[in-house]
Amino acid sequence: MAKDFKTLLRMRKWTLDDKRRELGEMMGVLEKLISEKEALAQALIAEQKIASENPELVGFAYASFANAVIAEREALDGHIAEQERKIDAFREEVADAFKDMKTVEIAERNRVEAERAEEDRKEQEELDEIGMRSATRDDGLI
Fold first, then answer.
1. I need a labelling partner for 113 at 20 to 30 A (CA). Which of 47, 75, 77, 131 fits?
2. Euclidean distance between the first and the last CA atom of the chain, given in angstroms as a whole number
3. Domain annotation for the chain: domains and CATH numbers
């Protein structure tokens, strides 16, 4: 029985570790999307600077660039929002896996404590029996 609990606990820990790793990957994707959005904002600032310095040369091209940046930013915002929703939902899965692992840990701890209490009870019974035999010998009853 002890082996069963240890195997079950190992499986629950493995599941939790796997879910945590997957959550980390999801967070990495989110960070990448945010970095892309920041890079896009920096590119827009650089283009605005260039357009303001040479309005006659770049002015006509800047409008289409700005529209493309706006569309890309909106797409990235959508991807970021979707990834955040996925992460929030997956965090619940991680919490459930943690709860399952803790439940098994507590059950194993309770089982070990019950075994220890039973061993202590048997040992006490043996000591009581030895004490009773010794007392009856000392009283001259045997």
1. 131
2. 44
3. 1-139 (1.10.287)
